[in-house]
TrEMBL record:
Membrane topology annotation: Multi-pass membrane protein
Entry keywords, A to Z: Arsenical resistance, Cell membrane, Membrane, Transmembrane, Transmembrane helix, Transport
Source species taxonomy: Bacteria, Bacillati, Cyanobacteriota, Cyanophyceae, Nostocales
Protein family according to the UniProt entry: Belongs to the ArsB family.
Name this protein carries in UniProt: Transporter
């Protein structure tokens, strides 16, 4: 029976790493859920133990941020930001800078996967309107959503997990890692300038009629006010899950939008995947398999290496769930290193983060291609440099 339990865990993590299982129509959400169900079927966990393993605060935080992002998108906030970019940026290098820091900033406030999902078709559209090669700008988007999300607990799912496990406040986390995010974004701009000569131009030769879109002004004002209030709540120390759920609840009180329009934008797959992963990790811990990693996380440098490796093998969220049991609770530096390493490792390969895959898949649907090799040429040097920077900054 133990052999079958280990086999179920192994197959599940392989599926999570690749995002599918050969011959089966399963995504990461269904793989995680089926893996959790298998562990219960094999007697490793019962239903009450599986239920207790789910970190409801993380799920509430994720759900609330998705509701907020959906309202901002419905109000036209993200298209307004793109419109501002088109109207005021007239050079190729200027577009690269604004896209990098704009998407990085938005990813620090909201979930990076959401920003990648919303902005990718807009970036492709801008590139087509301006007759530009979309690849460097899409790499800028994918990289910046990862780099910018380093800065805050709300930037990406793994940071949300780390905030829940470590107890680090939103403000303290941002104070520690925002400088790293800013420096990394600057490094990315320089690296893309070196890789793609066509983005270096400072000539004001980009002129295009901005696309037409609709702004729901009352909803936009309401969404921005509530989002600003949420950020204030984070800064003054109100628990993130409670504050986010209250903000989401206020946004759902409306006469303008049908609730299904917002709820359809919630990434239910991600919430299901998280639930399955919590149960799966509880099973791994019960088997004692997590202790195998303990010999490799005895120094900060080893923690960095193991985190980067696991983040690219099984993705960053499962990596955090596997490693967090081995991190001393009051050791803030190690938690910060874990957050930075798991996020920055997402730029290493095209498969390193969900944001990368979102960009690649959205581009493919529009007749372009972002290949594994093209991304590796961009991501490998960037990841090595930014990981070294984060290590020496934190320690």
């Amino acid at each position: 029976m133990v052999v079958l339990q280990y086999l179920a865990i192994l197959i599940t993590y392989i599926g999570l790493g690749f995002g599918y299982l050969p011959g089966l129509r399963m995504n990461r959400a269904t793989i995680a859920l089926v893996g959790a169900a298998l562990l219960m079927a094999l007697g490793l966990l019962d239903l009450p133990a599986a239920w207790r393993a789910i970190d409801y605060k993380t799920l509430i935080f994720l759900f609330g941020m998705m509701i907020i992002s959906a309202n901002l998108a419905a109000a036209g906030f993200f298209r307004l930001a793109v419109d501002y970019t088109i109207r005021h940026i007239h050079s190729r290098f200027g577009l690269l800078i604004v896209l990098t820091f704009g998407s990085g900033f938005l990813s620090a406030l909201f979930l990076n996967d959401t920003i990648a999902l919303i902005l990718t078709p807009l970036v492709v559209g801008i590139a087509q309107l301006l007759n530009l090669n979309p690849v460097p700008y899409l790499l800028a988007l994918a990289g910046a959503t990862n780099l910018g999300s380093v800065a805050t607990l709300s930037g990406n799912p793994q940071n949300i997990l780390i905030g829940s496990f470590s107890g680090i406040s939103y403000l303290n986390f941002a104070k520690a890692l925002t400088p790293i995010a800013l420096i990394c974004l600057i490094i990315q701009v320089g690296w893309l300038w070196w890789l793609y000569p066509e983005v270096r131009s400072l000539r004001p030769d980009l002129k295009v009629e901005p696309p037409h879109y609709r702004i729901l002004k009352p909803l936009l004002i309401k969404s921005l006010l509530i989002t600003a209030g949420l950020l204030v709540a984070f800064l003054i120390g109100i628990p993130t899950a409670e504050a986010t759920l209250i903000a989401a609840g206020l946004l759902l009180v409306t006469r303008r939008l049908k609730p299904e329009r917002i709820l359809q934008k919630v990434d239910w797959d991600l919430l299901v995947m998280f639930s399955g992963l919590f149960i799966l990790t509880e099973g791994v811990q019960k088997l004692g398999a997590v202790e195998w990693f303990s010999r490799f996380v005895d120094t900060p440098l080893n923690i960095l290496g193991v985190t980067v490796l696991l983040s690219n093998l099984v993705s960053n969220v499962p990596a955090i769930l596997l490693l967090h049991h081995l991190i001393p609770h009051p050791d803030t530096q190690t938690w910060l290193l874990l957050a930075a390493a798991s996020t920055l490792a997402g730029n290493l390969t095209l498969l390193g983060s969900v944001a990368n895959l979102i960009v690649a898949e959205a581009v493919a649907k529009r007749g372009h291609q972002l290949t594994f090799g093209e991304h590796l040429r961009f991501g490998l040097p960037l990841t090595v440099v930014t990981l070294a920077l984060s290590y020496f900054w934190i320690y």
